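Example is below:
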Amino acid sequence: MNRNRNIILLLTLCSLLSLTIHAQKINERLTMRVKDIAEIEGVRGNQLIGYGLVIGLNRTGDKVQQNLYARQTLQNLLQRMGISTTVDTLRPENVATVLVTATLPPFARQGSKIDVIVSSIGDARSLQGGTLIVSSLKGVDGQIYALAQGPVSIGGISAGDAGNSVDINHPTVGRVPNGAMVERTVATDLAANGSLTLVLRQDDFTTSARLSRAVNETFGAGTARSLDGRNIVVKVPAKYLDDNVSFISDLETIRVQTDVVAKVVINERTGTIIMGSNVRLSSVAISQGGVTVRIGTEYDVSQPSVLSRTGETAVTPRVNVDVKERKPESIILPDGATVEEVVRGLRAVGATARDIISIMQAIKSAGALAADLELQ
């Protein structure tokens, strides 16, 4: 008897443990890490830009008759190498002028390598097989932060001549993996004055308050304070003052339940409707029907016989108008219905994507949609 009771108790405990683990997994799916929803103020990349030449092209470079600065750039390059020449004597077909762009990541040091994007600014047909020669990359302050050079990978194909050619992907834009070497660093001061600021990627007062509360529960009261719906100031605890990296690592792993504004996003060009799970509608009745008008013109031709000496060909247009009206379909939705239920109901009565978009706009105008309607 006692044995059976112990077995029942053990099974009950196992069931409760399984339910607890399941609930924890569900809670983890509903929450997100701080590092997924927020950034640290000041930790950012910097845009770099430069000008250069891509050489070694198979007669697909800039046309010299229309692109004078390609020859001027090549002349300047040769002069720096001790070769004296003039612009008029240069007829390069294997050279293309390009703009070189890159993003300098935070904490990059001298000698670090970054990827660069090479884009033709002339009339070159393709950068396939080309090599970017040394190009200096500057920031908005005019200082040189990196030097770029290397073979260009375009990820496409361009073949043929002007009369018959085939292009796959975009042959006038390429990439040089690890093609730039950092020469100057950008100083990033973490936790200046003993505090840092978390910046939410999407502003929301509820999420900001929850994040502040979660940080205080983890590191102690008064550690975090929400300034607004996007920024949260976090003080570095005393035990982390000499180890800011460990504090940021622990801070980023905190899980927070996020909240978003109810929104319906509609793309009229593609007929796409994206809706959030928290979008609700008030009680509403929808009647949807359509009238189709088809207008066609037929031409009746009257032509005299072959042996007739008189008469001429006459063309008489005949216009046909056909009007068809589809019986309106009605849908009644209860209070609290979701947009998904609306779309499913409209699909059931044969409404097209553009009909659904028009109906959603009308529901918003009627005040029955408690969500933001964003058109793209």
Remarks:
- Residues 189-256 form one domain.
